[in-house]
Amino acid sequence: MTAAITTAAGAATDGGRRRVNEDAALASSPCFLVADGMGGHDAGDIASAAAVGAFARFAGRDFLTVDEVRDAVEEVRARLDRFSASHESGAGTTLTGAVVAQVHGEGYWMILNVGDSRTYRLSGGRLEQLTVDHSVVQEMVDAGTLAEESARTDARRHIVTRALGAGNAESVDMWMFPAHVGDRILACSDGVTGELDDRVISDVLRTTPDPRQAAAELVRRAIAAGGRDNATAIVVDARHVAHAPRMTAASDDEIDVATIERSGSVASDTIPRSGLPGSGS
Asked: Which pTM does this prediction carry?
């Protein structure tokens, strides 16, 4: 069987100025995921590792179904809830990235996100943020009470409103996008986006052909720009797409998952809005 999307990928991570790197990454087709743990050492580490670990068993598969992804997410949630119930310090994590999927024989990106780590797509030379941050500042921007240009430096920017674990039962966002040869997907923690604006990110992705070098360069620049948080990036390129549809306008690309089924001076660590015991928040 031909893979739904044949990929080339690279991943990089750096702890930055923080004592422990609580990020985790999985860059093994069909899963390209980044997690940013919360709850302090031996909690955030466990949470992010659990998040990507639940998907590691799928390595080598041609594609995953929506149900398989949702089952893996619920497995992570249950594991972290059990951990938090038996430890004074709770554990939670963000999770974002792309999973290779297939719809009627065509290759699709299944994008998932919970928290404020992000997934982008570079296509036709244009960078697009595919995910929406689950954060206090994003809610304020959406409500019109905070200017978008102020969100990058607002003291509340690391407070997330959704996570896996941390007593949070809210859903994970999921989208389906048809893949095209030449697509470049970036999944990264907020240690990258907190230091680099979209202009810099776009420039690196457009001018660094090798995905391994592109991921390493994004992390290097994030650390050089301040490195206040753990920084992790995965860059994945679509080299071949099964039965690729013709390129359509961006507004026509997204297909709802339900339709498919029917058919610096502030704390730099990610923290949940409710707070976690022992998180230092």
From this structure: 0.86
